[in-house]
Design goal:
The protein is of the alpha/beta class and 260 residues long. The protein has a single domain (23-257), classed as Rossmann fold, CATH 3.40.50.1110. Helix content is 48%, strand content 12%. The chain is built from eleven helices and five strands; from the N terminus they run H-E-H-H-E-H-H-E-H-E-H-H-E-H-H-H. It has helices at 2-21, 35-40, 44-49, 68-80, 93-98, 123-134, 153-158, 162-179, 188-198, 215-230, 246-257, and strands at 25-33, 54-62, 104-107, 139-144, 184-187. A five-stranded parallel sheet has the order 2-1-3-4-5, sandwiched between helices. It starts with a helix and ends with a helix.
Length: 260
């Protein structure tokens, strides 16, 4: 009898321990953005899953090249025409927001306007108002996008350097955060700058256009996001994309940690 009781206690303790050790925090994320948000989500699920107890489920309301003013216009257009479904030809932003209980909804400016302060308002205000109305429980987080590669031809058209673009967008996003009372931020742009300074040999930009993120850039952004979503050090991340050298991944995680 005594032996059976001891066995029962041990089995119960093991079951409880297993239950807590397998407890996973799932964060549901909706991105409202463009292809730069798509870049951010490239490895997001795998990065999160490599950290014990962490899981990310994401859905997108992204349109290539879509700026704050275009998202704001689409909100109004959809209200005027209920048949209009601009997101993947299936949804309105309102429907996307109401489709689930989001923990986090991200917002961002399109990259070619990210350094232009006049491009943020009143359009971001209209997008944020739509989020608050249709997903009132969501935490609105700013996705700080990144400056283009130093050799990107678009910079010539902008008549600025990569450093100037970076300085401009960092200030604009900081002002955006302050405007809404101190919104949290995924500092992807600052992580790009940190990585470029520490490890200039790691290419963060797509070889074809030099403004979208490369595999390494996508990994860096994903590490920044997961670290902020779960309030952890990027050093806890163990996932390494196929074909990426472990030492490169480690350097990128270190860059992500420097902006945490």
């Amino acid at each position: 009898m005594k032996k059976s009781f001891i066995q029962f206690v041990l089995i119960t303790m093991f079951a409880v321990t297993s239950l807590f050790s397998e407890e996973v925090k799932t964060v549901k994320v909706l991105t409202i953005g463009n292809s730069f948000a798509d870049n951010a989500c490239t490895f997001l699920s795998q990065i999160a899953a490599s950290v014990p107890g962490c899981k990310v489920e994401f859905t997108k309301a992204d349109i290539g090249g879509c700026s704050f003013d275009r998202h704001a216009k689409l909100i109004k257009d959809c209200e005027a025409d209920p048949t209009l479904k601009p997101y993947y030809k299936k949804y309105t932003l309102k429907e996307r927001l109401q489709s689930d209980k989001w923990a986090v909804v991200t917002i961002q400016q399109v990259s070619h306007k990210s350094f232009r302060p006049e491009s943020y308002h009143p359009y971001s205000d209209e997008v944020v108002a739509c989020i608050k109305k249709n997903a009132p429980g969501a935490d609105i987080v700013i996705h700080q996008t990144w400056a283009y590669a130093p050799d990107c031809k678009r910079l010539t058209g902008f008549k600025m350097t990569r450093a100037q673009m970076n300085d401009g967008l960092v200030k604009c996003y900081a002002d955006l955060s302050s405007h809404f009372g101190g919104l949290r931020m995924f500092k992807s742009g600052e992580a790009f700058t940190a990585s470029l300074k520490s490890n200039p040999e790691i290419n963060l930009w797509n070889a074809k256009d030099r403004f979208h993120a490369s595999r390494e850039g996508c990994y860096l952004i994903g590490c920044v996001w997961v670290a902020e979503l779960f309030d952890i050090s990027p050093e806890k991340i163990s996932f390494v994309p196929e074909g990426m050298k472990p030492e490169v991944a480690a350097a990128l995680r270190k860059a992500a940690a420097s902006v945490k």
